[in-house]
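Standup notes, protein team

Yesterday: finished cleaning the Lates calcarifer set.
Today: CARD domain-containing protein structure.
Blockers: none.

Input for CARD domain-containing protein:
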Amino acid sequence: MDKLNSVRRQFIKGVTEPVLNQLLDKLLECKIINDEEMESAKVRNTDKARDVIDTVRKKGAKASSVLIAALCEVDPCLFRELRLR
């Protein structure tokens, strides 16, 4: 089962705007998302968390692993809460 799918609802509810912005920067840096996807997520403020997790999930296991690792680095508390180890 896809780890991100299993924590999708909690991620959307628990992630903060500053953490999302850092995650987006990391995903862009690692070439998981492109500039267009980055801008799309920024524009959709109310659904930004949903947009980020769904975009990454659709890109597969490697992309999901990058997001999980970035979340561990950026927000270790949420990472532990979501039990993503």
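Follow-up from PR in the comments: The chain has a mean pLDDT of 92.
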